[in-house]
Amino acid sequence: MKLVHTVAELREEVAAAKAQGLTIGLVPTMGALHEGHASLIKAANMENDFVVVSVFVNPTQFGPNEDLDAYPRTLEADCKLAESMGANVVFAPAPKEMYPSEDATWVEVTGEVTKVLCGRTRPIHFRGVTTVVTKLFNLAQPDRAYFGQKDAQQVEVLKRMVKDLFFNIQLRIMPIVREADGLAKSSRNTYLNEAERKAALVLSRSLKAAKEQYEAGERDAVKITAAVTASIKEEPMSDIDYVEIYALPELKPVAAPMAGSNLLAVAVKFGTTRLIDNVVLEEK
């Protein structure tokens, strides 16, 4: 496996793979890789001949007073994990490499899909995501790109971008990977102290109960979100940002009664750490 840091080096690797007629899988990450990322890299390795993993803490998707400086950076460990899962290249650029000047070009998906949920409190976040992913798509020229369902809103935003800009790239969305006790794997879990870590289990517990409620026949989104909110509030360390249901795809307003496929998404702070989780509610 090769570790490269520059646009020129990555282009060289991609050109060599293309010249051999290899299919390319891209796994964009911000590093601090865990088993969730491992599942993406493994899937990319199974479905493509050549796998590029990007490790880049993208500054343009962090707002002021967010955790850009604190975000964990563990490149050596990331490279070991990526290699063990079958990556061919790890691309770990410096911010100046990806944003060499004061960029004048942004890729922005407009509409409700970027305004609800995380978009409400993180207004520049998705513009940063779509811009950096577009750059990575241009550089890696993948046949397939791999993302986790944990970032469900990001997935919907990227699907829209790929559709609107005619990217000839298949988006592969992999299921949420959880700890044995149910907590969704996240690089930000490392911020939690022991008490917060225990408190955070209320998220997966509440979502599981909501899924059971839905499967038992409940189709009133207001009742489901109220039950989840009440359940999370029972945990004194929790500070709720949102508990909401939207229709899929593209996070449209939910029907009454609920029909088709719907996303129940939560964002909750424990101490200073904001965690997100979700479950899809749909007819079997």
Report on the structure:
The chain has 284 residues and is of the alpha/beta class. 38% of the residues lie in helices and 20% in strands. The protein has helices spanning 7-19, 35-47, 75-84, 95-98, 118-121, 125-140, 152-164, 194-199, 201-215, 221-233; strands spanning 2-4, 24-29, 50-55, 89-91, 144-148, 170-174, 238-247, 261-270, 273-282. The longest helix has 16 residues, at 125-140.
Short description:
Belongs to the pantothenate synthetase family. With 284 residues, this protein is of the alpha/beta class.
Unreliably modeled segments = none
Integer-rounded radius of gyration: 19 Å
CATH superfamily of the largest domain: HUPs
| CATH C-level class of the largest domain | Alpha Beta
The general outline is: globular
What level of helicity do the residues show? 25-40%
- Here the CATH topology of the largest domain equals Rossmann fold
Number of helices: 10
Instruction: Tell me which CATH architecture of the largest domain applies here.
Output: 3-Layer(aba) Sandwich
Structural class: alpha/beta
Give the spatial strand order of the biggest sheet. 1-4-3-2-5-6
Query: Terminal Cα separation, in Å?
Result: 41 Å
Order of helices and strands: EHEHEHEHHHEHEHHHEEE
Quaternary status of these chains?
single chain
How large is the share of residues in beta strands? 15-25%
Number of strands: 9
Mean pLDDT over all positions = 98
Tally of structural domains: 2
Catalytic activity: (R)-pantoate + beta-alanine + ATP = (R)-pantothenate + AMP + diphosphate + H(+)
Protein name: Pantothenate synthetase
Keywords: ATP-binding, Cytoplasm, Ligase, Nucleotide-binding, Pantothenate biosynthesis
EC number: 6.3.2.1
